[in-house]
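REVIEWER CHECKLIST
Item 1: Sequence provided? yes
Item 2: Single chain? yes
Item 3: Sequence as submitted:
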Amino acid sequence: MARKKNEVQPMRPDVPVYPIGVAARLLNIHPRTLRIYEKEGLIEPAHVGSRRMFSANDIQWVTCLRSLIHDDGISIPGLKKLLNYAPCWELADCPPDVHECCEARVDRALPRTLHRAGDTAARLEAKEEDRKKRKTAAQKKKHRASG
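Item 4: Structure as written out by the authors:
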């Protein structure tokens, strides 16, 4: 009789609880692949001493990352550049209801709204303005599709 796989969830998805070997097993990849993604700057696991520890959010992000690389055929250098211009949910075409509740989303994109260079507060304000514009555009698109 086949054993049922129990999905173990940490109390909070942002708590790093999985060492690299366990994370690799959960993702069905080699630990070296996770090290490569870290070296390329695509993931940032927590370091406890000399050990890399991954959270459930990290696991979810690597799953999305692998989908972009293998299913969509985007190279690692290409993905790094794209993440500077668009958040992950735009690259992966995640619907708004999915990306709004996704805790693993990655947004390294530079704000598209004009702001003063070097002013952190202005940059954050510009990013928020961009987010509002995307949300409004998504709502308009949804409204047009339904009516």
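Item 5: Key structural point noted by reviewer: The helical segments are 20-27, 31-39, 56-71, 76-85, 88-91, 96-99, 120-146.
Item 6: Recommendation: ____
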